[in-house]
Input
Amino acid sequence: MTVSLYTSGLDAVGNGSWVADTYGALLVQSTYSFNPDHVHVSDIVASEVTESGYSRQTLTSKTRTVDLSGGSPPNIILLGAASPITFGNPITTGQTTNAMVLYKNAGSDATRLLVAYFPFTALDTAAIAPFTCIIGATGLLSIAA
Output
């Protein structure tokens, strides 16, 4: 499935330091429809998973790799998170999730900028405990210059 960027996402990543800034991840329910014009976490919080045992997570062990093989400007900037993202142990059923949302963690939900939407096959959040997203070797985002 294809990763989608929020319009605010490019600014969030481009106007800061991926490694030094704090980024978080949350899960949305399957009823959420991606909208690239959503800007802040407050725009989607009504669709966030709310089950007991679930919690948002801060990305750790972030990396940034620049591919200069094609000269300058770089061909690809690869943003990755080496550590798996574990959202806890949801203990109730009835909610399904089909996407993880990456955001820049700055203050409250009204100021946290949405970055990217990572869809996956819909899952009952309580069926997999703990609920963990593993980041592949190619990282979270590749940005071509």
Q: What stands out?
A: The chain has one helix and ten strands. The longest strand covers residues 113-124. Residues 4-144 form one domain. The CA atoms of residues 25 and 102 lie 5 Å apart.
